[in-house]
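Sample pair:
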Amino acid sequence: MADYQYLGIEQADAVWTLTISNPPANMLSRAVLTELDIFLETLVKNPVPKALVITGAGSFFVVGADIKEISEIKNGAEGEEAARLGQRVFDKLERLPVPTIVAVNGHCLGGGNEMAMACTVRIASDRARFGQPEINLGIIPGFGGTQRLARLVGKSRALELCLTGEMINAQTALQIGLVSQVAPEEEVLKKAQGLAKKMASKSRPAIERILRVTREGLAASQEEGLEMEAKSFGELCGGADMKEGLSAFLEKRRPKFQDR
């Protein structure tokens, strides 16, 4: 495992916890995004954990891109390059073969919200705040916000958030489907890790196929998605984990999957 300046990694059996740490507000500078890209690439090549929890250090989750770096952008080509870096990293995050659970422990704005939306599940602290405030700077979300937000909460609510730049609280985020759970501030990380542990207890081949088929199916027609589902279902039939799962069900015990 490489040494990271901005990332803290805690390994607990099959669940890893990644903490973004760039005080005071965990901004996604180019250096932070580069480290995150390197870390994600290690998981793509060798997915050791079966679930990954992501959170922010201190009282913030991630408040967005580095404003100083944005102010130094000189022209459109440099701006497009900056956007493509964030998009590339978050696409890699979204395509990981392991589930990612975000413990949103504080403000989750701009690039922070875009990173959270690239993950599998979002759990929010009751003091968390969400938003895409880029329009207040005369720009637009550049790390996938205009695309993932509309897909998660619907076109109307997404456009309202992007066009006003206003923040919403955790309860509103829950109501519109941006997050799946809200927990007290002191419990949000523990709840995310508990959910990750539950997912990590399942069969790795089944986990990987659910993630892939859902992601790719949503980008295709329903007919194409059903075809992907049927093929993946067939690939798992007769495997060791299917046999163990059926035996455990019939014997009324918890399965002990071998991940094959």
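The domain at 204-250 is CATH 1.10.12 (Lyase 2-enoyl-coa Hydratase; Chain  A, domain 2).
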